[in-house]
Amino acid sequence: MAARDETRAKEAIDRLNEEGREPGLGGVIWHELDLKDPRSAKESAERFISRERKLDILVNKAALSVITVLVHPGSNFMVRSRIPAFGNVQALNADGVGESMAVNYLGPYIFTKTLLPLLESTASLDGADVRIINVGSNGYCYAKYLEYGSKEAWNHTFK
User: Which InterPro entries does the entry link to (predicted)?
Assistant: First the structure.
């Protein structure tokens, strides 16, 4: 189970073990993964490959909600959303990538892309049934409240 927080991951693993799993399915271990930094996601996948011989299933489930303010370090660029129920103020990282973009898209992409050779080699084994599952959310439903149809609508919404 890949996660940022070891304590929370191990609590989840304990719950899985308490609820019982079918015999012969192997164990669940914690694997450190922080998707906020794309380089860290790649390093995490490389560590996994160095320790494991196969990977049967990869579930990409991490997500952050829509942000309310983007601020790029060293610039005056700022976007404000009028959807107050979403997220907190958040800065772009040194690469100019917002935390939600890194966690929701870029990190999982790099993590998965780096793990592909292991997934492919596992898939070549007799009886293998390899899967990549990407879990989404209904956050896209809120996009209808944003006006991006024209520059004027954008400026009116975010001034």
Answer: NAD(P)-bd_dom_sf, SDR_fam
Give one DSSP letter per residue of 70-97, joined into a string: EE-TTS--EEE-S-TTS--EEEB-TTS-
Q: For residue 33, what are its two tokens?
A: 């993964």
Residue 132's closest CA among 82, 60, 75, 62?
Answer: 60
Give the long-range contacts of residues 109-113, CB within 8 A, separation 24 or more.
Answer: 110/38, 110/41, 110/42, 110/45, 111/2, 111/33, 111/35, 111/41, 111/42, 111/44, 111/45, 111/60, 112/45, 112/58, 112/60
- Of the two residues 45 and 4, the one the predictor is more confident about is 45
Residues in the chain: 159
Residue 49: pLDDT band with limits 50, 70, 90: very high
Helices (H) and strands (E) in the chain — how many of each?
5, 7
Q: Are strands 89-91 and 69-71 parallel, antiparallel or unpaired?
A: parallel
Per-residue exposure over 2-12, b if at least 16 CB sit within 10 Å of its own CB, e if not:
bbeeeeebeee
Q: Is residue 30 within 8 Å of 13, Cβ to Cβ? A: yes
Cα–Cα distance for residue pair 21/137, rounded to 1 Å: 27
